[in-house]
Amino acid sequence: MGPPLPSRAEGVDAIVELLRKLLTPQRMFLQMTHSGVIDFDGPDRATARFVERERAKGEHGFYENLAVYFDEAVRTPSGWRFRRRRYDYRYLDTSPFAGEVFFSQTGGEARP
Q1: Cβ neighbours of residue 42 under 8 Å, at least 6 residues apart?
Q2: Measuring CA to CA, how many Å separate 67 from each of 41, 76, 91?
Q3: Which of 2, 22, 48, 84 is 20 to 30 A from 72 in CA distance terms?
Q4: What is the pLDDT of residues 51-85, one digit of tens each?
């Protein structure tokens, strides 16, 4: 991931550790992925771009961003796998936002 919150992980153990860090419990976390474009370079390679927006409210404060995923993928005997994934921020706001967090009464547990 690029600035302003850069981080890098290479290899399974490092990627798992980074994901654990990023997925710390939040009061609310919403990720919306938009406008994906996938370009195939032959039968076994592809590049992709996906625009996304995130909003979170947790013990460490507030977080809202717009970013772009830049992906390189390869087809393996087990299926498509990421070869490389880059996450570039386009906008970041950590100021408090107004509003309340609501949980579905029919889908999933409500958390305090």
Answers
A1: none
A2: 24, 28, 7
A3: 22
A4: 999 998 877 788 899 999 999 999 999 999 999 99
Residues 6+ apart with CB under 8 A from 51: 33, 34, 35, 36, 66, 67, 68
Q: What letter would DSSP give residue 4?
A: T
Domains of the chain: 12-93 (3.10.450.50)
Q: Which residue do the tokens 């980074």 mark?
A: 18
Task: Give CA 110 to chain center in angstroms.
Answer: 23
Put simply, whether the predicted model's pTM sits higher than 0.85 gets the answer no
Q: How many residues does the chain have?
A: 112
Question: Is residue 82 a contact partner of residue 61, using CB atoms and an 8 Å limit?
Answer: no
